[in-house]
User: What shape does this take?
Amino acid sequence: MTSATYDVLAIGNAIVDILAHTNDEFLGAQGMSKGSMSLIDEARAAAIYGAMGPAIEISGGSAANTIVGAADFGARAAFVGKVKNDQLGAVFSHDIRAAKVAFETRAASDGPATACCYILVTPDGERTMNTYLGAAQNLHPDDIDPAQIAASSVTYLEGYLWDPKDAKDAFVKAASAAHAAGRSVALTLSDAFCVDRYRGEFLDLMRKRTVDIVFANEAELTSLYETKDFDGALAQFRKDVVTGVVTRSEKGCVVVSKDEVGAVPSFPVEKVVDTTGAGDLFASGFLFGVVRGFPMKKSAQLGALAAAEVIQHLGARPQTSLRTLAQAKGLLD
Amino acid sequence: MTSATYDVLAIGNAIVDILAHTNDEFLGAQGMSKGSMSLIDEARAAAIYGAMGPAIEISGGSAANTIVGAADFGARAAFVGKVKNDQLGAVFSHDIRAAKVAFETRAASDGPATACCYILVTPDGERTMNTYLGAAQNLHPDDIDPAQIAASSVTYLEGYLWDPKDAKDAFVKAASAAHAAGRSVALTLSDAFCVDRYRGEFLDLMRKRTVDIVFANEAELTSLYETKDFDGALAQFRKDVVTGVVTRSEKGCVVVSKDEVGAVPSFPVEKVVDTTGAGDLFASGFLFGVVRGFPMKKSAQLGALAAAEVIQHLGARPQTSLRTLAQAKGLLD
Assistant: This one.
């Protein structure tokens, strides 16, 4: 196995977030389920945007947030995802490249607009997401360069991508290329509703070792095994994955593998402003630790630290140097 | 004079701000003068964007920020300015309407893109602006509806607009329509470099009473009278305007008229995050006080309060209800 060009390569939906503060009444009136992610069409996107308050735009996308965080820790990073060559596509492309992430996927010149996600943040810091996938869902196997995947220590995939046919094929092509080169594949289950739609397929991906490292939160884990018994679900998860990471918000996380089970606490935060990106940034720190060969506990601490940073401000991209933060906590030299 | 439909109508450049944190070295390397506003062309815009870090997008524009703040205090508000019908134009239009400001100016269907302003914020909170005017500079006298102006108690204009020929004509048309209907006209001098380019014309606008209320900061005032003597400049200013308001950052402001000169202190803030919009939001509070018939001192206090809110976070639009803030301070019922 030759030495890697990239530590982590992430494949996911290329999305610009459109964030606004709101209240529970608005979510109720719009029929939104607080804390969830819903896929919406263009008409619904227009209706939500017309009804919501003044917003700010920040680049987002789950795996894109993760890779930006990993790069911020110091990982050599690349991203694969689809924008259109419109203004929001230029915003997404600029921001990810400005974060020192290689991003070469060809932008679509026609078809739907660059994806956007209307994120409504309630006073408790919880975010409710409505995603118009637009150009992002047209990610195609041809957008996957096997040589680039082979040159990446870990290829990281988001479960959200497991929906459009072409994107699924791209996902499988990338996982095959990674394993053919002796590299690792990581997956986040992304969302409990997402798990509910693709439970069998996600379990297949895990049990057939299409993926090695799997990230889930509590809701996703219990949805995966259709149980309310967290410990039971965790025991099954441990059998199904090489490495499993379950994030539990303020309760910290649990990392499982064949040989070990370890819990790591969350970092205390003064005030939760916006939980958008908490899971994404946890994955940033954890993956950075993995590629540096750190023990699982230290990797999880880096994840917890990055998650704590991102929930203390609006938006899912770090606003403080994660590397500097980790150095201040004695987690990095 | 019939009763007004709008308390304040603002005319200005319709701009989306693209904000990034930076440092003094970057400003130096880019040849930018810290704290200033430079007009840039498309090529320079692309070069700056390519070099600057990850950014966030927030609707901006000086007079647009002011009118959003005035609406937030409770003013019936309208805005006139030019976007293109592109994605950033949709962002600007959404945000100003979502702030309950009437905005009916027809978007351009061809020509340059919606205006954007690359705002680089240094660790001291100072902002350095680079504005690509794009569609905004094509505001035309035909975009001014004299009936709408006549139905507005105060028409507020930004000095930045005093540059393209058509926009100047639009400006004069609006001022004439306002005065013909017995309404007031307010102007902000906008920027010291702007004053330097149009010193004679601005003095003419004041001395010929094309404008009644004039806002300036210290740098703009001393540039206007080509002196370093603040008190001397203030004395001349008092002769040249009906009402003059000079903002002095943390030193507060001075309001002058034929009959009175009064200083009002600034509101203390914990930490200055980003000074973008400080002057704009001062004008929001002051104009709201004027249209409510408040004494100058109270109007200036509302201005100071709004300025204090906006400099404590990124972006030039309020993130907290200014009306609620003012009520908490006992300035509004």
